[in-house]
Amino acid sequence: MALAGIIFAIGLPRGVESGRFWTKIGPALLVGVGIAMLLSGFPIEDVHYGAPHSFQGWIHLLAFYLFLASSTLACFFMWLRLREDSLWRGYDWYSLGTGVLAVLLFQFTMFYIVLAVLLTWLEVLATRLWVITRREGASGA
């Protein structure tokens, strides 16, 4: 899943019109999301609540925070990028809403819900990119 996230982040700019320089930040942050998912895959031995006690536990915790920060910021930067592309109409506001919801839920320490909201957002973007590229592939053939 982590490798698929990195490949998605690399391929996303091909399916979205490029705008100003700062609109390239969103896809770059999505690479950070993929790296965070890769790092969080290490097995952890800390199965209790509280601070981690092992190296793997600390890596897992840091990867979780990298995922939250990268994906939440990516929502806002992708909002800026998607609003300039007519093929992504509606997804710009979905990205903005997801970012706002993630920040609000994080304030209430609903980490698992934040995680579900952000992973769903990534899946929706990936599905939309797949639909766009299939449509362009069919029309170009």
Explain how this protein is built.
With 141 residues, this protein is an all-alpha fold. It has one domain. Helix content is 74%, strand content 0%. It has 5 helices and no strands. The chain is elongated and about 55 Å long. The mean pLDDT is 85.
Briefly summarize what is shown.
By secondary structure, the protein is an all-alpha fold. It has helices spanning 2-15, 25-39, 55-82, 91-107, 111-140. Helix 3 packs antiparallel against helix 4 (91-107).
Query: What percent of residues adopt helix (DSSP H or I)?
Result: over 70%
How large, in whole angstroms, is the Cα Rg?
Answer: 16 Å
Main beta sheet strand tally, sense and closure: none
Mean pLDDT: 85
Number of domains: 1
- The total count of strands amounts to 0
Order of helices and strands: HHHHH
The tally of helices reads 5
Terminal CA distance reads 30 Å
Q: Assign the structural class, choosing from mainly alpha, mainly beta, alpha/beta, alpha+beta, or little secondary structure.
A: mainly alpha
What overall form do the CA principal axes indicate?
Answer: elongated
- Low-pLDDT parts are none
Instruction: Name the beta content range.
Output: under 5%
Task: Set out the fold topology.
Blueprint: H1 2-15, H2 25-39, H3 55-82, H4 91-107, H5 111-140
Which features does this protein show?
mainly alpha, 141 residues, elongated
